[in-house]
User: What shape does this take?
Amino acid sequence: MIELDKKILIAEEELLSYYKNAEEIALENQNKVLQAFIKNKISATHFAGTTGYGYDDIGREKLNAVFADAFGAEDALVSQGFTCGSHAITTVLFGLLRPNDTMLAITGKPYDTLDDTIFGLKNGEDNGSLKDFGVKYDSVELINNTDFDKESIIEKIKSNPKIIYIQRSCGYLYRTALNIAKIEDIIKEIRKVNKSSIIVVDNCYCEFVETKEPTEVGADVAVGSLIKNPGGSLVSNGGYVVGKKKYVDLISGRFTSPSLQKEVGSFENGYRLMFQGLFMAPHIVLQAKKGSMLIGRVMSNLGYKTIDNTNNLADIVRSIVFESKDDLVNFCTSIQRMSPIDSFVTPIPSEMAGYDSEVVMSAGCFVQGSTIELSCDSPLKKPYVLYLQGGITYEHIKLALNDYLVNRK
Assistant: This one.
C-alpha cells in the first residue's frame, strides 16, 4: 500500500464539502456538453478527415456547431491550425481591430506572450504588431488584483473603444481568476453606457470550471486553447473562438482569408479526438480542480502563501509563493520526477521566448506544453510565485504532491 503523507489525508477531510460542490458543477457541465452532441446528431461519420481545401467538410462544420452550443454561443471557429492560445487571441484581435481603433484592456496588461502582438516591443522594430497598424491601446488595472475598477472603466468606455478586453486567468500575476459573476456584473454595467464595443474574453484555463461561460453572460467573443481545458487532454494542438456569428465571421476571415472564412480547412487525421476531448473536458477539469484545492490546502497548512479561492475557483491555476528560488525549483523537480513522460529530466531555469526573465518549467506531458496536464512554471524573479495547473487524474496529483512532501528540504 502507498503511504500518503498525513498532511494530504488531513487536507482531504477538510475539503470534502468543496469536492462535492465541484462534482455538482462537473455534472452540470457534462450535461451541457452532452446535449450539444445530441442536438447536433454527432455520429462516427463526423470523425473522418479531409484533404486539400476541405470543402464540404462535415466534421469540421459539426465540431464548430458542437462547440458553439456547449459555450452558449451563436457560432464557433475550432481548428488545429491555431498553434496555441496566444495565436488564437492574436487572430481575434487582428480580425476585429482596424487602424485607429482602440483596444481597452480592463484587467490590466494582458499575458506576456501578447506584448509583441499589441505593442511591438522589439526595440521599435517593425514586427507586424497592432501598433504598427495604427491600433491604439489603453488599459484599466484591477483594484487590488481582485475587482474591476468600475468607475474608471465606465469613464474610458464613453469614447467607444472597438474592443473591451478581459483576461479571466491570472497570467503571471498573483491574483485570483475572475469568476463568471464578476464578468456578468461588469458586462451589465458596460452595456448601460456602451452598446457598441466588442467584449472579448481570454477564456484560457477557465472553461468548464463554472457552470456558465462568458458567452452565456453577455460577452461577444471568448477564445482559448485546445491543449488547455476544452481539449480534455486528448487534443494535440489547436484553439477555439466562440461568440456572435458576425464577429466569428470576421475572425475567420483573418484566420483564412476574407473570401473563404470557414468554408475551407482540412485535417486529414480526422476529428475524433477533438470531439472526444470536448466530451471529456468537464470530467478532466474536475480532476484538475480537486487537485488544485488539495495542493492549495496542503501548502497553506504548511505556511506557504496561496490565494484562498477554494470556495470560488474560476480557473485551474494555483499560485504558490515560495520563500526561495531553491524551494520553488524543488517543487518543480517533484512534479517532473512524478510525471509519466520525461520523469528522468531535471528542470533547469532558462530563457524562453516571450518572457523577460529566466523561466523554470515542469511539464512531463503526453502533449507537449499541455497545461490541462499536471505542469507548473515560474518566471524566476521575486516574489517567487509558482503557477501550477492541470492534472488529468486526481490520483496523479496526489502522488506528485506526496513526493514533494516526502523529499521537502
The first strand starts at residue 75 and ends at 79. The mean pLDDT is 94.
